Amino acid sequence: MGDVVTAGWVSTNEAAGITGYPAAYIRQLIYKGRIEAHKVGRDWLVDLAGLLTYKADMDRLGTDRYNPWRDDLAASGRGRTE
Predict the structure, then answer these.
(1) Better-predicted residue by pLDDT, 71 or 57
(2) Strand order across the 37-40 sheet
């Protein structure tokens, strides 16, 4: 990352190490807008607080995170409604 001071922001590789998710999955979350990130040069910096919130939500949901009928998905227009 060079000399960039990034309080509260981590690289995708650092985010992968913190969460245990593969770096490719972190990039998918960025592209889908599920976590906040900014591109600096050719690298992505991920908002650490948002990433940890996302991980906590997924851990809390457990296997229900795969349920397309979840109320939170329907409310955001991403889940099934019928």
Answers:
(1) 57
(2) 9-11, 43-47, 37-40
Please state the domain extents for the chain: 9-76
Q: How many CB atoms lie within 10 A of CB 5?
A: 6
- Fill in the amino acid letter for 13: N
Strand pairing partners for 10?
Answer: 46
pLDDT tens digits, 18-56: 999 999 999 999 999 999 999 999 999 999 999 999 999
What is d(CA 62, CA 53) in angstroms, rounded to the nearest whole number? 14
pTM: 0.73
